[in-house]
From TrEMBL:
Keywords: Phosphoprotein. InterPro entries: CheY-like_superfamily, Sig_transdc_resp-reg_receiver. Transmembrane segments: none annotated. Residues 2-119 form the Response regulatory domain. PROSITE patterns: RESPONSE_REGULATORY (PS50110). One of its GO terms (biological process) is phosphorelay signal transduction system. Pfam families: Response_reg (PF00072). The modification 4-aspartylphosphate is found at residue 53. SMART domains: REC. It comes from Rhodovarius crocodyli. This is Response regulator.
Length: 135
């Protein structure tokens, strides 16, 4: 299944690449550093799943979801420190069509993302894409 990573942090994109590499059913199609680039990449790459941050320049993740909901391909999984479970941002992302929300553990950079939340990201991705649970 093809995956797109959308996050303004190069460090976070690298950590997400490491998480994706741990799941053989997923393959990275591309990356985008802001919402405008995300919409272009989504239209061109047609990913099965997009990992989407919320707080980004030019167009934030909620803006991406509003525009993606009309014609966008695949599923969107929000991965963001701004979307803690039960928060208004998380609920709004779900109302706009996100298939799920996974919170980053320790702020926008989250150097511990792969260690602390990698399994949660992959579990959510498997659920969204209908893949079997990890053995």
């Amino acid at each position: 299944m093809g995956v797109l990573i959308v996050d303004d942090s190069p460090t976070m994109r690298r950590l997400m690449r490491e998480i994706i590499a741990a799941e053989p059913a997923l393959r990275l199609l591309g990356e985008a550093e802001d919402g405008e680039a995300a919409l272009t990449a989504m239209a061109g790459l047609k990913p099965d799943l997009t990992f989407l941050d919320i707080e980004m320049p030019r167009l934030d993740g909620l803006g991406v979801l509003r525009r993606w909901a009309l014609t966008g391909p695949g599923e969107v999984l929000v991965v963001s420190s701004a979307a803690q479970p039960g928060s208004e941002v998380a609920l709004q992302a779900l109302r706009l069509g996100a298939a799920g929300v996974v919170a980053k553990p320790s702020g926008a950079i989250s150097l511990d993302m792969a260690e602390r939340r990698g399994h949660a990201v992959l579990d959510a991705a498997r659920r969204v894409l209908g893949l079997p649970d990890a053995a």
